[in-house]
């Protein structure tokens, strides 16, 4: 259990869901240049996309919150460790049609959000006690579509935010 296990569970769940237009799902950022991060990362992550496609990057920006849930005495624990998760979406459409690109991007979001809400353990019940539930829910934001030098590739960046809760029960954990 812990942050690494949560990151892996989220990555594997999204990858296994086989959402339309979603290709690679990365455990973390493979591109770290902070100057114009979103624009440069969009170019970096989507360079191998031929038509429309999306690359997802799992980011756990924190802060994590581990809280006592039930009084068990000092020798035992019954805690929740709550991890904020951001799925960074880097979408590209090579067709040059911004309307078609938007609908393809919408298909990505319309696949991921219900997947999270309908699979609250993200198929990893030994790691994930709850995902995308309670007050935090699942929140999506997107950038305005944009193009770069070629003018034909439409990029859309987005984020899907939710919480993953771990339940930690035992002694000395």
How would you characterize the overall build of this protein?
- It is a single chain.
- The chain contains three helices and eight strands, in the order αβαβββαββββ.
- It is α+β, with helices and mostly antiparallel strands and 173 residues long.
- The protein has a single domain, classed as STM4215-like (2-Layer Sandwich).
- Strands 1, 2, 3, 4, 5, 6, 7 and 8 form an eight-stranded mixed sheet that branches.
- The longest helix has 21 residues.
- The radius of gyration is 18 Å and the shape is elongated.
- The termini are close together.
- The model has no long low-confidence stretch (mean pLDDT 89).
Fraction in beta strands? 35-45%
Q: What would you say the CATH architecture is?
A: 2-Layer Sandwich
CATH superfamily: Phage tail protein-like
Instruction: Give the domain tally.
Output: 1
Biggest sheet: strands, sense, closure?
A: 8 strands, mixed
Net shape: elongated
Supply the CATH class.
Alpha Beta
* Low-pLDDT sequence parts: none
Encode the helix/strand succession as letters. Answer: HEHEEEHEEEE
How confident is the prediction overall: mean pLDDT?
89
End-to-end gap: 10 Å
| Helix count from the secondary structure assignment | 3
Q: Supply the helix-strand structural class.
A: alpha+beta
CATH topology: STM4215-like
Total beta strands: 8
Portion of residues within helices = 25-40%
